[in-house]
Amino acid sequence: MAPDKSQFRYEPAPPIPTYDEAVASGAGSHTVFEAPHSPLDATDHTEGHSLLGGTASSSSTHDRARPPRGYQPPTVETDDEGESWSSSDDDSDSEADHVRREMQEMEIDDSNHRSQSIWGKRIGRFSLPRWKWGWRLPQISLPRFRRHDANASLESATTPAANGNTNNSNNEEQPSSGSRFAFPTFGSTALFLLVGRLLALFLLLGFVYLIFVSDVFGNMSRRLGSGMFNPNDIRQYLESNISSNQIKDNLQHFTSYSHLAGTEGDYALMEDIELLFRKYGLEDVSRDTYHVYLNYPKADGRAVEIIDDKADNGKGKAIWSAKLEENDQATGLTGHQTWAFHGHSKTGDVRGRLIYANYGSREDFQRIKDLGIQTAGAIALVRYYGPHADRALKVKAAELAGFAGCLIYSDPLDDGFKKGDTAPKGPFMPADGVQRGSVSLMSWVVGDVLTPGWGSRENMPRMKKEQTKGLVKIPSLPLAWRDAKVLLQHLKGKGQRVPEDWVGGVPDVDEWWTGDHENSPIVRLKNDQDENEKQAIWNVYGSILGIEQEEKKVIIGNHRDAWTLGAADPHSGTAIMLELARVFGELLRMGWRPLRTIQFMSWDAEEYNLIGSTEFVEQNDDMLRKDALAYINLDTAVTGNTLHVAGSPVFKGLLMQILDIVRDPYENATLKELWERRNANDLEGLGAGSDYVAFQDIVGTSSIDLHFDGKGHPYHSSYDTFEWMEQVGDPDFVHHTMLGQVVALLLYELTDRPVLPFDMAHYAEKIRDWTGEIVPWVEDQAKNAKKDAVPKELAASLNSMIKASDEVMEAVRRFVAWEHEWQSSVVASGGWEPSGWGRKRCEFNSKMAWFETDLLDPEGIPNRTQFKHVLFGPQLWSGYDEAYFPSIRDTVDSGDWGLANRTIAKVAGIIKRAAANLAEGTLGG
């Protein structure tokens, strides 16, 4: 009978007792040993009985105590079940028993060490072997040397002490009592087996040596964490495991109370995210504290009033006061609803004549001036949106036009019932809806306005508020059109009738007038607030470390702070990011690891001026320039059903592949098909407005921002609630799920493809296209300014721009050819990456990422030195809008043609340098 293999599961085989031990209770008895023990005197039956816990009868297997959990007690069995061990003078029978036991031991060893290969991974663009989920790395078991107690037992049976025959001629010299092993005799089966095992050991060691010499471990051991999984299986897993219910639960929790940056609510949610990062299995989870300038409203510190101008020389009592606050939407929530105010607004209490100035652009204020209306000391009333959507630029333009204060309201024509249904039943702003927001000059100074260019640690130097360019110098407040209506009605008949394109949609305002410096009502604007120049804010980070290039990072980020409850902005993105952390954490527990590190980041104080992300970038700028491969941004991720993607051109090819996979269940079409139906042929440009700014524009990390937009949403108001999202924004959370799938696949491909999937050819094409746009624009501006031909110096600089774009095209063509060489080498090696090519592949990936970094100007844009990218970044007065070649556009707009010419030549030189660095050297095999 073959040995019971279940007895040998996991535990090494126990020593086989000697014959004397086996018959310690008497000849013919069947002794079962409870556990291995120290050698006993074979002739001392009493001691044997006491240590075995009773008589050694065949029934003792049923009477003995249960062994410890998981332990398998060894047994001594005969070849034939039920036959007892007994002494015999037949040496041939003993020798046969010995051989059978040797063979049984070999079968046991073989049964526990099935032949498996860990070299199932082949890399490249090809499909990998389909390993089942939960696959564990097989172990290579080396031969084990263990005590040969079967020989000892057999030999002891032939000794005089065992059988009484002292003259047996077959007796061999016995080993000394202290010997652990019995060396087999020449020509014996045991010697043959020993030699065979030694030869197998030498062959195995030689094989391992050859593996190390051939650099297979160097190229492949890094892949063991991820390479044992079929990429298609991982993609399917990511698609199928993004849970809409989990995203919904995340959103409901994170919108359960107000959490302005730096407040208790913000701190509580920071701790929640840190806890979830740890729960999901992320590594290196940490929080990061900065101390920055923030302001907060006071309960009685804000007022907008119409003053009786006939009493006390215009200093009389208020005849009307704005409500300012929205109807309470915070029923059942923790804490009170946040008050309506502007972040980073100027403290002040001012009075002046009211003047309406349309959207508050510089052109609008110039038109007021052209009408002969004096603006010095007046209060401006302007509406949101228009040519310059950035509210900070509206306030700054009013300041430069001489106004003492600025009020900004939401007009129904732009965001209200004139557009469609209003919140809470629709996407647009209701009558009492107030759009909060920051009025720090994001396109001038980004991050903490008192520490531009360096991380705002508590003990670091900082500017005074009066010194920074990032703050406006007049007070401002936001208004609902409910309150603006009264102000507009009081302007009737005063000043000038507005142009047709200045007429808004506020009801019950039958005539729209500008107002003037003599007859307009006097308005008081009070903005008294709490200010803290060293307010603590908190970022939270968590990682999944890469197995091949741990230092190389793909970062996904979303901000946590909100002006109100923030269902759409930002927590539609927060809910998705946390779900991605959960799903990737599950993959990590299964044994998968990416080639490169994934970092999840929760930013604080984004709403004030992109502070949390910018301070992190400025604190770690050298590391990010060297090792950050890509940044994925989630902010206001879902407000409707139309996908919009803005980003660096390197993402175009990969994005199209992913959109061709993810399907919209409502439309029964892929996202790529829907993308093409609306003629969205390319990625949108990155301007300013979310946390990608510092990554793309300061350290040159290729960035992408993704979101589903709708017709509108109650932006920065108290109506941006979980109930609004559940009923209007994304009732079934289908678009949250789809965006989660897109970003999950984007993360996976960027971190686990052997060759970084950057579309360098498309980037080269876009540089050529943008150059083809900027050159004629500059020529037109020069002709309009000079009214003659373009100066020769400027023409030469523009020509160098064209040549630079051509050099990028050629450099990229040569550069991407190496990937084809690498693929050919992998194919020629049967799917294996040959020795040395792994290092060159990593160098190739780094060069791709550094191309974006090489497009930085170390000195920055003139007068805005934080912004360093020569292609991307906000223009001085463009605010949120993208503006390619921002430094060229700024200097041309300034009218300083000498500076403009030098800037164009400098930009051309930077582009040429980036092309040269890309083409420099060779990565050939």
From TrEMBL:
One of its GO terms (molecular function) is carboxypeptidase activity. Residues 77-94 have a biased composition (Acidic residues). It comes from the Eukaryota. The chain crosses the membrane at residues 190-212. Residues 539-723 form the Peptidase M28 domain. The keyword Membrane applies. Keywords: Membrane, Transmembrane, Transmembrane helix. It holds the Pfam family TFR_dimer. Residues 797-918 form the Transferrin receptor-like dimerisation domain. Residues 351-438 form the PA domain. Residues 1-98, 156-178 are annotated as: Disordered. The keyword Membrane applies. Residues 49-60 have a biased composition (Low complexity). PANTHER family: CARBOXYPEPTIDASE TRE2, PUTATIVE (AFU_ORTHOLOGUE AFUA_3G10650)-RELATED, N-ACETYLATED-ALPHA-LINKED ACIDIC DIPEPTIDASE. Belongs to the peptidase M28 family. M28B subfamily. This is Zn-dependent exopeptidase. The lineage of its organism: Eukaryota, Fungi, Dikarya, Ascomycota, Pezizomycotina.
